[in-house]
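pls design
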């Protein structure tokens, strides 16, 4: 019997990601849309606030290093979730306040988004480090896929439910929905981690003796780690640039209500989940040596995402009859395809090097993702605002940004082709295990 966490314990830890996703989806979708459409603020405002949230996460390597030194991850997870949930509720309060007192609302929003960033970074990094250290080597790919799928499930479940209760919209209703989600998410996270590390985790490195700068330099000196960091940055930049402009675009182009655009976000995340499960089924053994290739699906996912973004951009010219929901679902589907391959690669790289540096290594990739998401949100919204000043039709500005994102996904595909030769048998085996387990988790979640 394999040592380390059992499948049940891995699934429990995945619930932390479900709780995290439930809080974050309201911030990135609903709060953003309300600021742009209902409050008529420039798109750069929520973009800048999300940029603060992601900028704080550049400290992920230091948080990972800290958990390496102290040996326990659970306090970092619980503390991080507490900060995340408090900050998530704070963003709703700030948005409601901004409708009456703009300056006070924005000041509270800055504090709330910083708190969200600190909480998400501390909890997310420590959770991945706990899994990497407490899961048997052959199960690491499966564990990573479980927590990713369960985070997407948190998006997919929360967005449509929140959209239902947000209509008819009001600031008080927004606060009530956000507060309920935050309380439930924190309770789920605490119950999920209770006793798991003490019962099943492999002991973490007792004390990280090398200084942080030296450890970080060693990690960044690894060629594979550097190339993968670049891929994470560019692909996540392409993904995040549409995160803050899709719902306002749908509201302007198709006159959707806040509840309807929140449901649209849920449809996109549902597509991500479907893409992950679909590729997992193929790589579980039925795809053979060609269709089981990590690099093939990474490239296909990036190219598919680019094509879907071009289709969404075309909606600006096609008008109300355009099948926007189908295009948004296709975008999510392609995102899920490349995510599965990226997870397999990440877990393969995380298993290399000194185990006492695992937290720092995970933190580097988390920081790359955080910087990319922050930069994407700011650049996407800034470009929309600038282009709206230059063109007569606002929808053309959105279409231009979606097209630029498609180009970024094309660049990501080119980088993916250079990541490495086809994955080793051990890494392919890890992804196959991830695929089988993610399928089972997905059906159980229903």
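designed seq:
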């Amino acid at each position: 019997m394999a040592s380390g966490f059992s499948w049940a314990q891995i699934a429990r830890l995945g619930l932390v990601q479900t709780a995290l996703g439930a809080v974050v989806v309201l911030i990135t979708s609903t709060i953003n849309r309300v600021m742009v459409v209902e409050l008529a603020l420039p798109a750069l405002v929520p973009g800048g606030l999300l940029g603060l949230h992601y900028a704080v996460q550049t400290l992920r390597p230091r948080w990972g290093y800290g958990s390496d030194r102290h040996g326990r991850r659970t306090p970092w997870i619980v503390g991080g979730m507490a900060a995340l949930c408090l900050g998530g509720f704070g963003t709703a309060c700030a948005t409601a306040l901004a409708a009456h007192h703009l300056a006070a609302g924005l000041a509270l929003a800055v504090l709330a988004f910083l708190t969200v960033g600190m909480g998400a970074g501390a909890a997310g990094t420590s959770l991945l480090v706990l899994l990497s250290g407490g899961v048997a080597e052959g199960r690491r790919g499966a564990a990573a896929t479980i927590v990713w799928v369960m985070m997407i499930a948190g998006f997919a479940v929360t967005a449509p439910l929140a959209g239902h209760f947000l209509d008819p919209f009001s600031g008080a209703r927004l606060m009530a929905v956000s507060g309920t989600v935050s309380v439930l998410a924190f309770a789920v996270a605490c119950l999920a981690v209770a006793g798991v590390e003490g019962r099943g985790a492999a002991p973490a490195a007792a004390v990280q003796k090398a200084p942080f700068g030296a450890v970080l330099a060693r990690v960044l000196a690894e060629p594979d780690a550097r190339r993968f960091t670049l891929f994470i940055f560019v692909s996540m930049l392409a993904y995040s640039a549409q995160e803050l402009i899709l719902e306002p675009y749908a509201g302007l182009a198709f006159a959707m209500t806040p509840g309807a655009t929140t449901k649209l976000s849920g449809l996109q995340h549902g597509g991500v989940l479907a893409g992950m499960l679909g590729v997992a089924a193929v790589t579980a053994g039925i795809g053979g040596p060609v269709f089981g290739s990590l690099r093939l699906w990474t490239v296909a996912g990036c190219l598919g995402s680019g094509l879907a973004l071009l289709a969404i951009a075309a909606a600006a010219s096609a008008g109300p009859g355009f099948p926007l929901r189908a295009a948004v679902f296709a975008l999510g589907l392609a995102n899920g395809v490349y995510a599965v391959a990226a997870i397999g690669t990440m877990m393969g790289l995380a298993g290399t090097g000194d185990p006492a540096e695992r937290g720092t290594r995970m933190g580097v990739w988390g920081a790359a993702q955080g910087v990319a998401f922050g930069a994407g949100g700011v650049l996407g919204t800034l470009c929309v605002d600038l282009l709206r000043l230059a063109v007569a039709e606002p929808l053309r500005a959105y279409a231009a940004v979606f097209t630029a994102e498609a180009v970024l996904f094309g660049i990501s595909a080119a980088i993916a082709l250079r990541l490495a030769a086809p994955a080793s048998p051990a890494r392919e085996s890890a992804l196959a295990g991830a695929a089988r387990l993610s399928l089972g988790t997905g059906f159980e979640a229903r």
